[in-house]
Design brief:
It is a single chain. The protein is of the alpha+beta class and 163 residues long. It folds into 2 domains: 30 residues; 125 residues, Mannose-Binding Protein A, Chain A (Roll), CATH 3.10.100. It is 30% helix and 34% strand. It has 3 helices and 9 strands; from the N terminus they run αββαβαββββββ. It is globular and about 35 Å long. The termini are far apart. GO terms for molecular function: carbohydrate binding.
């Protein structure tokens, strides 16, 4: 009888330990983990990755990329602009994606957050004001004709990371 009691106790603790370890992945998913990160390819010695499965605000997007060992994407050359335009396909890379640029506290002036340098490489894009107050962060819009949209940083959209 002691053996059965000992066996039942061991079985209980084994089940408890299994359920504790099984809940770890649930916590990671709730913290913004993505089951689907899209590798868009490499250009100018950097690779771009889009997360179209989860929407985040700008700060969360920046933190998400960092947890993956990446950073929010910068678009600094005409080659990168052409590359991102060419990888748009309407199914796996479409819509608004946060990039690393945000308001430099001067009207219509933005800086790359990582380097604190002015955003000059996006002059070929049309900047679209979303009509909302406090537009402080930039998003790349992958579409037939890509644009840069100015959004409040709290807006929930998709993420574009780079390595």
């Amino acid at each position: 009888m002691k053996f059965i009691g000992l066996f039942a106790t061991a079985l209980f603790f084994a089940g408890f330990q299994w359920s504790e370890s099984a809940s770890i992945s649930t916590v990671n998913v709730e913290q913004g983990g993505s089951p689907r990160l899209i590798n868009l390819g490499t250009v100018d010695c950097k690779s771009y990755f889009a997360d179209d499965a989860v929407i985040r605000n700008w700060t969360e997007a920046k933190a998400f990329c960092k947890t993956l060992g990446m950073k929010l994407a910068t678009i600094t050359t005409s080659t990168q602009i052409a590359f991102l335009k060419n990888v748009y396909n309407g199914t796996t890379f479409a819509g608004s994606h946060w990039i690393d640029a945000r308001d430099s506290f001067e009207e219509r002036q933005f800086t790359w957050d990582e380097t604190k340098t002015p955003v000059t490489s996006l002059s070929s894009f049309t900047f679209r004001n979303t009509g909302m107050p406090f537009q402080t962060c930039l998003a790349y819009i992958s579409a037939g004709t890509p644009d840069i949209y100015v959004y409040p940083c709290e807006t929930q959209i998709q993420t574009l990371c780079e390595t």
